[in-house]
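Project outcomes to date are best conveyed with an example. Our students and postdoctoral researchers have been running inverse folding experiments weekly, and each run begins with a structure described purely in tokens. The record below, which covers 414 residues, was selected by the lab manager from last quarter's runs and is presented without edits.
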């Protein structure tokens, strides 16, 4: 199958003294309307009729901090991004808290990073975001109703522009939904999972998706809308809403939210691909024909060993054939997973581009071995500006060569 990889490997790019990692010389092609993607018979295809296999990386930790991989001293599974926001706002007020978050985001991902990802040979980045990038609360109060000045849309506009001019697509991933779509802190809240029973939270989520769809409906750089990240990621949690992610009850709850959001988006945008996640198996997702879903890419996240990864990617390939959907592994850390996905024409994005070294075995391209954790409860405002300042730029991080080599090898084989 012909694959579109917007890179030509021409040798190792020697970076400067501060520039970590390595990339490849590439011929960059700006994304145009002819590159607009849709699904045909299990494949992503451009308007020009060219088949595309998306291959890239997540920008985890940028617009939504996860304490296990970000420079904040909150304990894993006991501290969420909302905790950080609440503490900062109570200590410094809304405006200063917002400036601290802006400082962090300005430095965690820069133009250098987008260019670096493209030089590695990737043709897509998945961008995790959450509703609090755009809104002040779960009632849907916009940070500003001027969407051109809304910080959430300013970030998305920027990364879409940067990716497109470097020949890469963007997958917009609602990583954190109002009320929380799981008990896990990766959705920005902790031990909540209220989305499925709180109609107000569902309506606010729908509002945000419809505004996103209206803003980007004609933008070819956007490869897909990723409705919600890892619904019902409740394992090892206890509480009223800690539904078992392996039971039909939890799958039905997730699929009802998908259906509500897809119908709302399709009132505005019939053109873009929509991706939904079966957590933790693609078999959790329904027959799209019975749901009235079209132009779909089915997704799962596979934090599995080689044997299970092979089994689950084969299940995805079978689903692609059965339903005519595109297939996608949106997150994984198995070095051998890249080849397994490519052998089955499954789109993929690794988790994740960069992180602190809290978890030494993680699949980070770059890790901040010497990065200081911000103590949001005790550090001064000035110290937080330093800890979330230029020190967070990737040029100051260390290479994880085994990961970079795996990415390099994936494109050398093209």
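After processing, the design step wrote out the following sequence:
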């Amino acid at each position: 199958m012909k694959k579109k990889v917007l890179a030509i490997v021409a040798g190792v790019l020697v970076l400067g003294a501060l520039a970590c990692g390595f990339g490849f010389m590439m011929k960059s092609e700006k994304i145009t309307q002819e590159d607009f993607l849709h699904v045909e018979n299990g494949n992503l295809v451009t308007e020009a009729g060219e088949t595309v296999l998306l291959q890239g990386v997540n920008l985890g930790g940028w617009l939504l901090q996860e304490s296990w991989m970000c420079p904040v001293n909150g304990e894993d599974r006991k501290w969420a991004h909302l905790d950080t926001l609440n503490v900062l706002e109570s200590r410094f007020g809304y405006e200063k808290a917002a400036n601290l978050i802006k400082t962090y985001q300005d430095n965690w991902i820069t133009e250098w990073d987008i260019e670096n990802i493209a030089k590695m040979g990737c043709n897509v980045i998945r961008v995790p975001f959450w509703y609090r990038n755009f809104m002040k609360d779960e009632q849907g109060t916009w940070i500003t109703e001027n969407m051109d000045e809304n910080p959430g849309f300013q970030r998305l506009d920027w990364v879409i522009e940067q990716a497109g001019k470097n020949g890469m697509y963007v997958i917009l991933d609602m990583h954190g939904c109002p009320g929380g779509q799981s008990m896990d802190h990766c959705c920005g809240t902790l031990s909540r999972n209220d989305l499925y029973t709180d109609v107000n939270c569902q309506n606010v989520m729908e509002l945000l998706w419809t505004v996103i769809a209206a803003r980007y409906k004609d933008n070819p750089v956007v490869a897909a809308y990723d409705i919600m990240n890892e619904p019902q990621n409740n394992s090892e949690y206890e509480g009223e809403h800690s539904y078992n992610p392996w039971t039909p009850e939890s799958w039905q709850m997730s699929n009802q939210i998908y259906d509500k959001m897809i119908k709302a988006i399709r009132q505005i945008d019939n053109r873009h691909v929509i991706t939904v996640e079966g957590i933790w198996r693609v078999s959790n997702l329904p027959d799209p024909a019975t749901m009235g879903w079209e132009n779909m890419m089915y997704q799962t996240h596979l934090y599995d060993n080689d044997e299970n990864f092979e089994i689950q990617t084969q299940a995805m390939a079978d689903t692609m054939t059965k339903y005519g959907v595109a297939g996608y592994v949106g997150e994984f850390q198995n070095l051998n997973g890249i080849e397994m996905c490519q052998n089955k024409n499954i789109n993929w994005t690794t988790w994740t581009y960069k992180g602190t070294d809290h978890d030494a075995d993680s699949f980070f391209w770059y890790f901040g071995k010497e990065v200081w954790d911000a103590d949001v409860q005790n550090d001064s405002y000035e110290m937080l500006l330093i800890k979330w300042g230029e020190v967070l730029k990737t040029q100051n991080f260390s290479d994880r060569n085994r990961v970079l080599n795996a990415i390099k090898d994936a494109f050398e084989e093209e």
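The first strand starts at residue 12 and ends at 13. The radius of gyration is 20 Å. The training component of this project remains on track.
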